[in-house]
YqhV family protein (Metabacillus halosaccharovorans), 93 residues
Amino acid sequence: MKRLFSHIDSTVFAMAGLRFLSAGIELTAAILMLVFNDVKKAVTINSLLAIVGPVIFIITMTIGIFHIADQLSYAKLLFIGLGVFFILFGIYK
């Protein structure tokens, strides 16, 4: 198994792993909505997903930015940070 993933960068592997985790959480939430078959419970589950999505997004972006930070200028890092801020601002406002 180790040889299978030996050619994949560890940073990319961590980022993809977080996305698989996020997808698993989303799939579990969808199944729970179907199992409960109640709109109030479905809305509650969906509101919890509104927290999980941005958290996974921020962690994934942070891992990637830390890995390439030495290759970017401070201005580019600032623009990336502002972009992430505006995405989150747009989600919550």
In short: Helices lie at 10-36, 39-68, 74-92. The chain has a mean pLDDT of 89.
